[in-house]
Amino acid sequence: MSDINNKELEELAGRVADARAFLHIDEKTVELAKLDAQAAEPTFWNDATRASAVSKQASNLRVTIDEYDEAVSSLENARAALELADEDESFAEEYAATVAQLRAQLDALEIESWFSGEFDSGDAILTVNPGQGGLEAQDWTEMLYRMYTRYADSKGWKVTVLDVVPGEGIGLDRATIQIEGRNVYGMLRSEIGVHRLVRISPTDVKARRQTTFASVEVLPVLDDDIEVDLNPADVRVDVYRSSGPGGQCVNTTDSAVRLTHEPTGIVVTCQNEKSQLHNKEAAFRVLRARLYELEQQKRQQEIDALRGERRDNSFGSQIRNYVLYPYQLVKDLRSGVETGNVDAVLGGDLEEFVIGYHKWNVSQ
Fold first, then answer.
1. Which residue, among 356, 323, 355, 357, has the nearest Cα to 340 in the 3D structure?
2. Which residue from 56, 6, 28, 194 is spatially nearest to 113, judged by alpha carbons?
């Protein structure tokens, strides 16, 4: 085969070596061995919470190491196919296919390296709130809520609804969900900010064009060992009856929980579970995350590491535009990624925008 193919393999071998370095594969291998040793201890499951955290951490490390090993294997297979192709040209197709597979694997490993923050590999709490636009904003909130749940489903992530409050007449007054999976918080940091919708109003009898806003907040789910200044005595707990869309009762008991952190005024509600205890536990998870974020803001006045730059939930502050009329376009104002297939994006096809944001972010 030509020198071009040999140079191609040299370039790919260099990327594999780089991946070993920037993913810290050697360090991860040592760390995984230590976690596996802990898991083998007879008393490991005596503390179920800690055991679950260790198991999850080990699983994430194992996935990364396995993906790197697969790339190494693909490189070896490509070399073998190239040698065989010198004697039999029929192996040229196998070589090309293996190289294409290896490039895709290396691209995925490079994306993995972007999520090295303290909470990036973990789960997230995502909240959508309506902004300017009245009833239209409530409808837009529901559309975004549906978009994110479908995106999470497409990624194989687990979605738990924590709090969904129906709007007056249409849409949602707010929606909070917990999303569990690999690199969820790291990935969804791309969505933090104001989202702007332009369309013909479905509620306007004159069918006029309407501009609507909603904001998206993404917080990490904190491990129990993360210290947060939260005194239970500072929290007022109210219970009330859960309600679903149209005012229909989810159940007939006072299972919904509202937490008010009196020193800061932060209010958190949760009504998804039928158990008041489970709702209370979920609400405290959200409260801890918001208080942690508040502590970070105090330490970093200009840079908010968890939520990003704060902007008003109104015109001129959006991170992404969704235009349904007079033309079809979704455009991210940071990365420049855009598409005319608005229906696909609103249906959960967000990967191009999520990856595009992180490519833009690492280049800054």
1. 323
2. 28
